[in-house]
Write a structure and sequence with these properties.
Elements (H helix, E strand, L loop, with lengths): L2 H4 L4 H27 L4 H12 L4 H4 L1 H9 L2 H25 L6 H28 L12 H13 L3 H10 L6 H29 L4 H32 L4 H5 L1 H18 L4 H13 L3 H29 L9 H25 L4 H11 L3 H13 L5 H28 L5
Helix pairs in contact: 2-3, 2-6, 2-15, 3-15, 6-9, 6-14, 6-15, 7-8, 7-10, 7-16, 8-10, 9-10, 10-11, 11-14, 13-14, 13-15, 16-17, 16-19, 17-19, 18-19
């Protein structure tokens, strides 16, 4: 079978795909605007737009319509999923080239201290919880105590780069010292998260392969990260100085996107989460002189935030079913526990390193936004049968609520003119 025939769609499938895309973009932008006007994160509005179109609302009121638009053909859903992943990749790319890279000694001290107090300690405590509290009702058919413990540890300690980046961009504070420190901590957290998640899936699927998987995942992820940060900027500078500089001079946006998707492909081949490839490519582009890629950054950001990233967040909402899989007591318990653990750790660290109360609170709330990685954690663990559907919904809703709180608080702080850090 040829590649062309494999991806050929009927006229009806194309009609439903484009109708689904129009509805996702319309609801994402509409609710995003309403949430923004209500002084709430635009990104949560985009997720809510997808929620309206999914089984929670449209599927409940008009199930036949919801199935006709979004569930009739697997190929249509696959296309929407691809567009969603492109949105995530581009969001990570622009997040990478938006952050600053120069760290003072004081910034390094703050980032390291909060990484210990708001990530490592909550992760260890979270892992210990299933060994002292009966979490078995929330384990999936393929899960075991160790895999469940790792997932709980990740769930209480992770910070979202995509969501917190989107909040920083919306509030126009992406170039601040505060954003730089939060994203530095979140980047290291995500390395830990995806490595630990690989371990959890290995332990759950095959105990005999878990040791090799742990070693491989840790080595490849760290090696990929280090090689990209050291080698990619050198490669771009070489291109600028070589006879191939015409690619950058006349087509900087094309070169930037080519670099982004090349890193994504390489990450995927190495079994490293693809978002790291995009994020590292963005960091490398951000290291270049501003006059070289200024136009490219503007163009990539414009199209990404207009089309692809709203679809990504809308699809997140589309997957939620709050009618059949929502245990409010478990959700509230997990939300309070994880927030208190991560936020409390950050506040204690802030006091120990003699940070003022408000900056410590700002960092605690920003780092508590679980967003995209929290949703990725929930989706991967649920699809592999490591957690129950109740736990899946609780993880996703915790990610949304904590991101909502972070956006609301940071907007309030900015409006009051208070110092972020």
């Amino acid at each position: 079978m040829s590649l062309v025939s494999t991806f050929t769609l009927s006229s009806l499938e194309l009609t439903r795909f484009f109708l689904a895309m129009v509805l996702l973009l319309f609801t994402a932008h509409s609710f995003g605007f309403l949430f923004y006007e209500a002084k709430l994160p635009r990104v949560i509005g985009e997720i809510f737009g997808g929620l309206v179109l999914g089984p929670t609302f449209l599927g409940c009121v008009a199930p036949d319509t919801e199935n006709w638009v979004f569930g009739a053909f697997p190929s249509e859903g696959q296309l929407i999923s691809v567009i969603s992943y492109i949105g995530l990749v581009l969001l990570m790319f622009i997040s990478g080239f938006e952050i600053q890279r120069a760290f003072s000694k004081e910034d390094r001290k703050i980032a390291t201290s909060f990484l210990v107090g708001a990530t490592f300690v909550p992760f260890i405590i979270g892992m210990a919880v299933p060994f002292v509290y009966n979490f078995s009702p929330f384990s999936g058919p393929n899960g075991n105590l160790l895999s469940l413990a790792i997932i709980v540890g990740i769930g209480v300690s992770v910070t979202s780069i995509p969501v917190i980046s989107k909040i920083f961009i919306d509030l126009k504070i992406m170039d601040t010292r505060f954003a730089k420190i939060v994203l530095a901590i979140a980047t290291i957290e995500d390395v830990i998260q995806f490595g630990a998640l690989a371990i959890a899936t290995g332990v759950g699927a095959s105990a005999s392969a878990s040791l090799s998987l742990i070693s491989y995942t840790g080595f490849v992820t760290v090696a990929f990260f280090g090689a990209a940060l050291l080698g990619l900027p050198r490669l771009i500078r070489y291109t600028i100085r070589s006879r191939f500089d015409v690619l950058i001079k006349f087509h900087p946006s094309r070169y930037a996107l080519f670099l982004c998707f090349s890193m994504v492909a390489l990450a995927s081949l190495l079994n490293v989460n693809i978002v790291f490839g995009a994020f590292l490519a963005g960091i490398a582009v951000g290291m270049m002189p501003e006059e070289v890629f200024a136009l490219a950054k503007s163009q990539v950001k414009s199209i990404s935030l207009a089309v692809f990233t709203p679809v990504y967040f809308a699809v997140v909402g589309l997957k939620l079913d709050l009618i059949h899989s929502f245990d409010i007591l478990f959700f509230l318990g997990f939300l309070v526990f994880s927030t208190a653990l991560k936020g409390g750790g950050a506040l204690v660290v802030g006091r120990l390193i003699k940070q003022k109360r408000l900056p410590s609170l700002n960092l605690a709330i920003a780092l508590n936004a679980r967003g995209g990685p929290g949703i990725v954690l929930a989706t991967v663990a649920f699809d592999l049968g490591l957690i129950s559907e109740t736990f899946f919904v609780a993880l996703v809703l915790t990610a949304i609520v904590t991101s909502l709180i972070a956006g609301f608080w940071l907007r309030y702080v900015k409006k009051k003119g208070w110092d972020l850090l």
